[in-house]
Amino acid sequence: MAAPLALHLEFGGGAELLFDGLKEHHVTLPSQSEPWDMKQLLVWIRRNLLKERAELFIKGDTVKPGILVLINDADWELMGELDYHLQDQDNVVFISTLHGG
Length: 101
Description:
- The protein is mainly beta.
- The protein has one helix at 38-48; strands at residues 5-12, 24-29, 58-59, 62-63, 67-71, 74-75, 91-96.
- The protein has a 5-stranded mixed β-sheet with strand order 2-1-7-5-6, with no helix packed on it. Strands 3-4 form a two-stranded antiparallel sheet.
- A hairpin with a 2-residue loop joins strand 3 and strand 4.
């Protein structure tokens, strides 16, 4: 059984507006039989943190194009994207690069 995970989540570039305007969230993911991965984290975020307009953040089972994802300051594309196994105290940042005008 995997232990609970403490994570630091950050939302920026306007994405924070979908999360009650809060840029930083310290969360603890519950224990589960297999390790947490990014795909499961996105489902958890949608169910527990996302307050409105999910279509601006999630598309299918991943983030919408135009949202940059960093895991511990590295582009998630280098970390395995949805398959990355989260570690305790990971810092995950979501930055919207799409701005209205």
